[in-house]
Design a protein that fits this description.
Length: 93
C-alpha cells in the first residue's frame, strides 16, 4: 500500500518488478527475477474491496482518500511510539 501511495498510479508489473530480487544461476552472475504476481494481484483486489485503492483507467492503481487517511494515521502513530523510545526524533514532529 505504501508503494502505491508513494509511486502511484502504479501497475501490477511495476510492483512485481519492485518486489522481485536476484537469483543465483550456478556459476553465472546473478540476474533479476520478478516476484510472483498472484499474491500482489490478490492483495490489490482486497485493498480495492476495502475501498482503500482504486483503478485509475489504464494508468494503474492509486490510493483513495480513505487509504491516504489510513496511512497518514498509521505513520503518525508509529512516529509517536518511536519518539517515545528515541527522544531525539521528537524535534521532527
Amino acid at each position: 500500500m505504501r508503494k502505491v501511495y508513494l509511486q502511484g498510479p502504479v501497475g501490477l508489473q511495476q510492483l512485481v518488478s519492485a518486489y522481485g530480487g536476484s537469483k543465483a544461476l550456478s556459476y553465472f552472475p546473478k540476474h533479476h527475477r520478478d516476484a510472483g504476481g498472484s499474491v500482489i494481484r490478490n492483495a490489490l483486489k482486497e485493498l480495492e474491496a476495502a475501498e482503500l485503492v482504486t483503478k485509475q483507467g489504464n494508468k494503474g492503481r492509486v490510493l483513495t482518500p480513505k487509504g491516504v487517511a489510513l496511512l497518514d494515521k498509521v505513520s503518525k502513530d508509529v512516529f509517536k511510539e518511536l519518539s517515545k523510545e528515541i527522544p531525539a526524533l521528537a524535534r521532527y514532529g
